[in-house]
Amino acid sequence: MLAKTFGLLIAAAVLGPPMAANAKPKQVFVVAHVAANQGWQKMRLTLGGKGVLHFKADGKWIFNPSQPPVDGDGAANLSTAGRVNYTFSAPAGREGQLIGKIGGAPPFVAGAGGVHKVTPNEIERLTLMINDDVKQSAGNGLADNSGNLRVRVDYARE
Fold it and tell me: What is the value of pTM for the model shown?
């Protein structure tokens, strides 16, 4: 299925053998463009329990006009660890990296080619965004960002 929704290119497919009418697919994927200048962006992927997400992000975006463009892994020299004004401030945090969140669960690193184990309490829709100072405590937050990443997310349900 290919649809144009809110400026995002979204494609979803079911992989694997044919299933019964009521069975949930074991593996699915979604492809979308994630904009650098927007907050949490909903993906057409609702999760319900254990599984594994694989991320493949292509392209570059700008999180600060004074810095060079980065890919989904962000700026290796600009850690956000302990910087609570950033959306993701855990030890693996970097400015400009692709991060994800499932429902009300804490954010995690998706990166240019990351993996995230979905826990039973992570139930709801997957959202993605750039890791930046959204509170504008140290800069312009999302307002000075530009570009987008094309992100493919594969979900294998356990």
Answer: 0.83
